[in-house]
Amino acid sequence: MQFLPFRRALALVSILAAVCVPAQVAHAAPVTNPFTKKAGKLRDTACPETAITYGGIPRTRQYLAAVVKCLDKSWAAYFGRAGWAFGKPVVRYYEDPESTVCGVPWPEQAAAFYCMERGTLVFPLTGRWIENRTDLYPFKVAAHEYGHHLQSRLGVWRQYKARIRTDRRGELKRRFELQADCLSGVFLGSVWGSLRRGADDWAALLDATRASGDEDGYRSHGKGATRVYWLQRGYRAVSPSACDTWSAPAAKVS
After folding, report:
1. In the chain, at which end, N or C, are there fewer CB atoms within 10 A of the end residue's CB?
2. Residues sharing a CB contact under 8 Å with residue 144, sequence separation 6 or more, in sequence order
3. Residues facing residue 122 across a β-bridge
4. How far is it, in rounded angstroms, from Cα 103 to Cα 105?
5. Which of 239, 236, 223 is nearest to 177 (CA)?
6. Are 171 and 98 a contacting pair, CB within 8 Å?
7. Are residues 121 and 149 in contact, defined by beta-carbon separation less than 8 angstroms?
8. What is the pLDDT of residue 27?
9. Residue 88, class by beta-carbon neighbours within 10 Å (0-12 exposed, 13-18 middle, 19+ buried)?
10. pLDDT digit string (tens) for 102-126?
């Protein structure tokens, strides 16, 4: 048996390794994040809270209507600066859950939600998510559901929907929901100066958000700590570009 000189043998091994080992392919995000840095931040605006009760009488509809009005104004201006077409969502209020909504059965255990196919925000005016609350949780929930409207307008929902069948462990769903959490944080950061709230109020909101996490079973929205992370990320950045959950490591969307 003949042996090759050492240098020639080493070169041959290198060539074979290059041929046999597949090239490393960069991981591609499952959904393209439309919120670019070029579009800038959400500008600071005034959005004073209205009373959620007055004289013991619930004013939840008035409260939510005022929040939605601010959301419309802020996000319409942001879309305009970015050169994107904007349309306000339809808003429907319900005194109590009904058997169907938006042509489908009412989602079980839902607080507020967004009907993608009809571009409609649905706000029940009763339930633990809003009744007798003094914290900012209803404000944050309204901003979160509005985030889904933004995702719909910019094609995020369409891309996500095309990949739902591959989402066996709920990771894509969590990325979708956590982006809405982050966008709600962006809005809260942009109006915080007008809310007349302090550090204790922010801490209370973080606690409520943490409690809304899904820690066990099929996790569709993320663990409490994960939801808090993305809410704070948006709040601190006041920039939708910070809400790219689609390219974030799996550990950040657990």
Report:
1. N
2. 180, 181, 183, 184
3. 92, 113
4. 7
5. 223
6. no
7. yes
8. 52
9. middle
10. 999 999 878 899 999 999 999 999 9
Strands (E), 46-185: 53-54, 57-58, 90-94, 100-101, 104-105, 113-115, 120-124
Mapping DSSP to helix (H, G, I), strand (E, B) and coil, where does residue 90 land? strand
Position 135, amino acid = D
CB distance 230 to 182 below 8 Å: yes
Give the rounded distance of the alpha carbon of 243 from its chain centre: 8
Spell out, as residue ranges, where the chain has pLDDT lower than 50: 1-26
Selection from 218, 59, 242, 254 nearest residue 147 by Cα: 242
What pLDDT is recorded for position 168?
80
d(CA 61, CA 43): 26
How far is residue 239's CA from residue 33's CA, in Å, rounded to a whole number?
Answer: 13
pLDDT in tens, 124-152: 999 999 999 999 999 999 999 999 999 99
Q: 228: which residues sit within 8 A by CB, 6+ positions away?
A: 206, 209, 210
Could you give the CA distance from residue 86 to residue 83 in angstroms, rounded to a whole number?
9
Alpha helix (H) residue ranges in 137-170 = 137-153, 156-161
